[in-house]
Amino acid sequence: MIHDDFGEISFLKKNNIKYLSVRILPDSLQVNLPTGVSQEDGMIFIEKNREKILKKQQKQCENVNSALLLSPEKMLHTLTFGVRIVASERNSVAFALRNKVLTIEFPKEKDISTAKMQKTFWHGIEHFLRKEAKRVLPARLKELADLHGFTFHKVTIKSSKGRWGSCACHKKGDPQPTFSINLSFYLLLTTAQLVDYVLLHELCHTREMNHSPRFWQEMDRVTNGQSKMLRSELKNYKLP
Prior knowledge:
Blueprint: E1 2-3, E2 7-13, E3 21-25, E4 28-33, H1 39-48, H2 50-63, E5 76-77, E6 82-88, E7 94-98, E8 101-107, H3 115-148, E9 154-158, E10 165-170, E11 178-184, H4 192-204, H5 213-222, H6 227-234
Parallel strand pairs: 2-4, 6-8, 9-11
Antiparallel strand pairs: 1-2, 3-4, 5-6, 7-8, 10-11
Helix pairs in contact: 3-4
C-alpha cells in the first residue's frame, strides 16, 4: 500500500518473527508481523510512532548522496533524460517528459527539501526510469549477448535497490539450461559504460554461476581487462 506520509508500506509475516517491528527506509516501511498480529495492528503501531518514524525517514533522506537531492539549482542527469525542477503557480506537483527532459513543476510556496517532497519527486522520476529502462536495457542486453556469444532467455526490469542485476539458472544440470536476467531500472542513474558492465556481469553468470577466478577471467575478456576498475567505479553510485 502507498501512504501519503511514509511512502510504500509492505507487510511481512513469517513463523520465525517474534516481535512486531518496522524497518524504516527513506521512502518506504517494511512491517514485520508475528503470528496473530494483523496488518491493522501494524498500522496502529506505525501511527503511534508516527513522529519517530518520520524523523528517521527525514534523516535517511538527508544522508542520501547529495547528487540525488533534487532542487531547481541543479539538473539531475539519467542515461536517457535530464530532470529539471521548476517552481510554478501550480497547486500540485506535475511531471512532463519532452525532448529528453523530464520537467517537474511544484507549487512555489512548498519547501522541497522535506523528505515528503523529495519522495514525491522520486516517485515520479522512478515511473519514467522504469519506462526508459524497459525501452533500452533489454535491447542493449541482447546486443551485448550477440556480440560476445552469450545466450539468455528472459529479461525483467525491476525496482531493486539491493542489486543492480541478477541472473537465475533454470533446469540446472540439464544439457540446455535456461537463464533469466533481472535488471534494476536504477541502472539508468549511472553511465553507459557502467550499464554495460552490469549487463556483461549478468551475462557472464550464464557461464559461471559464481564469482570464481574463472568468472572474473571471463569478465576481463569482455571488458578488455577493465572489470576491476569498473567494479570499483560502480561502488561510487548510491541509490535514492
